[in-house]
Design goal:
Blueprint lengths: L2 H21 L4 H30 L5 H8 L3 H24 L8 H5 L8 H61 L6 H7 L1
Helix pairs in contact: 1-2, 1-4, 2-6, 4-6
């Protein structure tokens, strides 16, 4: 799967996990740590998704996506998506076992679901999320620096051309003076006739 698809999958999983984390019982401290990190990751992934979508629709040819791959984000992104998926599946499995065969709402089933994770699992997930956030930030910074450098080069090229305009205008003025075209009323006289 490409980076774009992985980001979309991770966003969906992050949203789903936020819902589970808000509804599940127990391990209040673990959930207190994990919930804002997954929410922040979801937001960052949405920004990343928008940036990827814009880079492919505005003719950039996926160059931002390529920079993300070059920045080494692809593997951690896949691992993060796998971790989010594993967490969501684990919670979904618990939820689906509650009231098996009966039609309980999600909220009713979540009342009986207890936190199934150990402290080490939460720490590993938080570490993966933090690493991914760092890599995405680095990719954004790299992209911004490339944009700034490109803009600087383009402005420098324009500046060189603008610097050439002054001497060219001076040469034209000198030519006009040499031809007597700079006398007062010259243009008015010739345009009236």
């Amino acid at each position: 799967m490409d980076v774009f698809g992985t980001v979309v999958g991770a966003i969906n999983l992050a949203v789903k996990l936020v819902g589970y984390l808000q509804a599940v019982k127990g391990a209040k401290e673990d959930r207190r740590k994990l919930l804002p990190e997954i929410s922040a990751l979801g937001t960052l992934l949405q920004v990343l998704h928008g940036r990827l979508r814009n880079s492919t629709t505005n003719g950039a040819g996926g160059s931002f996506s390529n920079r993300l791959v070059m920045a080494g984000i692809e593997e951690p992104l896949h691992k993060c998506e796998e971790a989010l998926r594993g967490t969501a599946e684990r919670l979904e499995g618990l939820v689906s076992n509650v009231g098996a065969g009966k039609s309980f709402s999600f909220a009713e089933r979540m009342k009986d679901v207890r936190w199934p994770f150990r402290q080490g699992e939460i720490k590993a997930m938080l570490d993966r999320i933090e690493r991914l956030k760092s890599l995405v930030s680095l990719a954004f910074q790299t992209s911004l620096m490339e944009f700034v450098e490109k803009a600087h080069d383009e402005l420098a090229a324009v500046g060189l051309n603008v610097a050439r305009i002054g001497p060219a205008v001076s040469a034209i003025e000198a030519d006009q003076r040499g031809l007597g075209l700079d006398t007062p009323g010259f243009y008015q006289q010739h345009h009236e006739n």
